[in-house]
Amino acid sequence: MNPRLLLRLWRDRWGKSDGQNRAIPFLEGQLSLWADWLTQLSVWALPSVPNIVGLCCLSLSSLLLVVQFSLNGQIIFSACLVCLALYARRFAGHFVTLLLVGLSVAVSARYMYWRLTSTLVQDIDSDLVLGLGLCLAELHLWLLTITSTMQDLWPVKKKPIRLPREQAGWPGVDVFVLCDDQSASHIRSTAAAAQALNWPKRILKIHLLDSCLRDEIKTMADAMAISYLTPVDYFHDRVSLINLAVAKTEGSLIAIIECHSNPEPELLKMTVGWFLRETNLAMLQTPGHFLAPAASVRIMPIFEETNSFSCALIRRSMLKEMGGVAPEPVTRRSHTALKLQAMGYSTGYLGFSAIAEPAPELQQASVESRWPGEREAFLAYRPFGDYSLFWKLRLASFQEELRFFHPIPRLAYFLAPAACLLLDIRLIQTSAALLGAYALPHLIHAHITNQRRQKQHRLAALTDVWETLLAVHILCMTAVTLLWTELKQRKKTWQSDTHQRPDAFNWKVGLPYLMIFAINLAALASGLTHLLTSRSEINEMNALFVVWSLYNVMILAARLAVAEEGRNIRLHTRKQMHLPAMIRLASGRTLSCTTENFPELALTLKLSAPVAIENQSTVNISIFHNHHEFSFPAQVALETDLILRARIDGPARLVYESLALAAYSRGQDWPKWLPACDTGDPLPRWLTAALRAMHRKAGHFVQDFGRFLRMQLGRGWMQIWKKK
Amino acid sequence: MSVVGVVSMKGGVGKTSVTANLAAALSSKLGSDRVSVVDLDPQNALHWHFGIVDSEAAGVCQQSLRADDWAGVALANEFDVDCLPYGAASEVDREAFEALLAAEPDWIGRHIRQAGLDQDRVVLIDTPPGSTVYLKQVFACADLVLIVLLADAGSYATIPAMESWLDEMSSVYPHLRSIYVLNQVDRSDSFNRDVADLLQRHLGERLAPIGIHSDEAVSEALAFQQPVLAYDPYGQASHDIVRLAAWMITTLNR
């Protein structure tokens, strides 16, 4: 049982369709029109009007922050705001997003203010310290949410720039394919995709960068007429590998592609235009997209500004001036970008998907191992002191620092109810009803805003489970890293740990959580017995903490289920296609079959009936794709009665590879195929359907009744008229 | 009842094989007693595909001259297809039959209707190549006409003649649908591939989405007096014919 399965069962139970159908596009309704009208008012052009309006809003919201309501007043007030948010969130547009974010920030700020001013114990004792701790944890999470929201609010949307017509002015490009100890077939398909880049062949050079010399890769590179660069001595990491390659090549642009991804053919045409127009541009990054989007995208950073890169184009001259790719931190790109910016050059980000990547499961491991490293980069490097970065970067660094300490508050949440129920510590000094009236709207708004921001990238519940899962794991690493960095400057190179990637989570990793789980269970049990047995009036706060620890137990149970799950093993980085195919034997007879592992060069075919074929005989293979048939000769050998292995050589290989590229290419509009966004109905469908039906019936009734009344009235008037 | 005519302007395109194999595929898809084939080709070869060797039986030709109905002409076989052979007719009989057909354009259609077949039966008619009296009869009674083509120069050259014939017929029978079917496709042969692409561009929607691949199994099946579906069910030709039959059923139902 894993969370995704749970989620699917839940969707089945409530009649919510699974998969793509559950994506409901945002509406273009009255609210969007109003927003357009409001933003296009001519008033905004007048001097100081925006400032005055901004000041008014600011003072109003600060009023919102400090004003204290009675319990009923607070309930009515927050219910109004929640209703507004629930209504608005269905509509499309940036204005609506801003509105939701504004509501969420205001409600959360109000909650935090109330928490700090009226819920802490007055006397100075251990209760105050612990209560303040919990408060700080909440404040931390609040700041983190605010900063990440601010970061995502105005994504810079840059469009590709057209290249000049004459190819003479186009810069030469060196494509570095980082091999990363991958197998030859993976490297081969990425290299083939790089060769297929739509760029003049005389100025496009492909280089395979490998950490040690491997003969099979060497022969493959020779056969493909591309260069294969390896260091002379062993134990080179990727940084020095790239720097070595930079020294050995001379194209004016460098594109760095990782081996497990597939560049789109139009990658260079879409990006290089920016380098030609902006002479100050040093580095350009593009996001990747997954070949198989899955729920586990949860852990990947959201594809917004400067968050996730799959391909980086760097100008050679500026990279050389900087002294090569930044070697210090574990992450190369964000750090290189920081350094370049500090030197006065600009870096950019193009928001179209230029790279097709394998399913995210494969990358999780590397993301996990990268996480603490990234934090380390910021601690070791201290961008605040060294560089004059502009405010967005400052915000980003601040957020990174906050994220660094994220596991601690998370653990605080898990232990807080236990502290209250088991040790009888009063962490929050208020009534349960008031706490609910303040905290619930805060949580609901946060949820709505998160869903709006994350759209198709994550599932909210899964993110929670996953981040919980990582918290202890990261906490240990964080602590170690923190100490280590303070003690001495580490010289660990980034991403050299490909050999020791953490495996799927196991019980050893899950052990700390088992303890927390046990503590929560104990707290739950003690709280419940207390509630059931105590003859005096029920303590409301205790009930609240019981609910809280119940939630904790649920999340932890899901998390332990994930830890218990088997290891996720993937043999192939690319999705394997089952396409209809045909074999034409030398005798003229044919046999229909299907491909088992389509883009692989060692093609495996599944036959529908046993057939007598001599080993190493040459047959003609046809593969059918979208009503088209591609035919090429191949050497085959029977593996079992029904499995045939084919080897494709010579000119046929070109046909085969172009077919593979065509079958796997997604085009630039790929993200649009994904479910646009999931508004994630909070109510089950039967309920909404019933409500809608009732609404409709009521409308009909009102209409009919109105008509009836009008008729009756009309008749009455007629009679009066006639009498007269 | 649906009547499907299988025609071509040029001989040797595998029309009779396509008729027989399609009939067998339709029968295996629809169930028993649902498919009949009528041979209007004086070569009298269709029944060979179903393993019928009874050459004494009177065929469509003689029976039409002898009596005014086709009772007893249909020969049952193990492939669940009622086969009405042309019959081993003499030259005199053939001329008399053709004169009969020339006199009444809907003669065949009337006889098929009179035979008292079920509402859901599919009747396939095989015809001799070129514009003959038989072709006119087929156009008069068919719901769907399959025009069999090869991806070669000879077939390509006959398309204008076929098109003008279709134009003429569509003015008389506006509801008639005609679809070109490519037979013996072999994309490993570059000339065959180029002509197939040319035909695809030229005919567009009017070319059936499924072509039948060239396959030795088709000719071998005739030697064994079987439809190819029974002889080599896993070959590409069988695969194509089954898909073509499925496509035909949806087309007829539309």
Helix content of chain A: 40-55%
Q: C-alpha Rg of chain A, in Å?
A: 31 Å
Task: Provide the β-strand percentage band of chain B.
Answer: 5-15%
Q: What's the number of extended β-strand segments of chain B? A: 6
The top-level CATH class of chain B is Alpha Beta
So, the CATH homologous superfamily of chain B?
P-loop containing nucleotide triphosphate hydrolases
How many individual helices of chain A? Answer: 23
Most extensive interface, residues per chain? A-B, 19 and 20 residues
Q: List how many beta strands of chain A DSSP finds.
A: 16
Quickly count the helices of chain B. 10
Total number of distinct structural domains of chain A: 4
Q: Which structural category fits the helices and strands of chain A?
A: alpha/beta
Question: Your description of this structure?
Answer:
The complex is a heterodimer of chains A (724) and B (254). Chain A has 23 helices and 16 strands. By secondary structure, chain A is α/β, with parallel strands linked by helices. Chain A has 4 domains: 20-154 and 403-564, no CATH class; 167-359, Spore Coat Polysaccharide Biosynthesis Protein SpsA, Chain A (Alpha-Beta Complex); 580-673, Thrombin, subunit H, CATH 2.40.10.220; 683-724. In chain A, the strands form 3 sheets. Chain A has a 7-stranded mixed beta sheet, with helices on both faces. A 6-stranded antiparallel β-barrel of chain A has the order 11-12-13-16-15-14. Chain A is extended and about 95 Å long. The N and C termini of chain A lie far apart (82 Å). Chain B contains 10 helices and 6 strands, in the order E-H-E-H-E-H-H-E-H-E-H-E-H-H-H-H. In chain B, helix 2 (60-66) crosses helix 3 and helix 4 crosses helix 5. Chain B has one domain (2-253): P-loop containing nucleotide triphosphate hydrolases (Rossmann fold). With 254 residues, chain B is of the alpha/beta class. The radius of gyration of chain B is 17 Å and the shape is globular. A 6-stranded parallel beta sheet of chain B has the order 3-2-4-1-5-6, with helices on both faces. At the A-B interface, strand 12 and strand 15 of A face helix 8 and helix 10 of B.
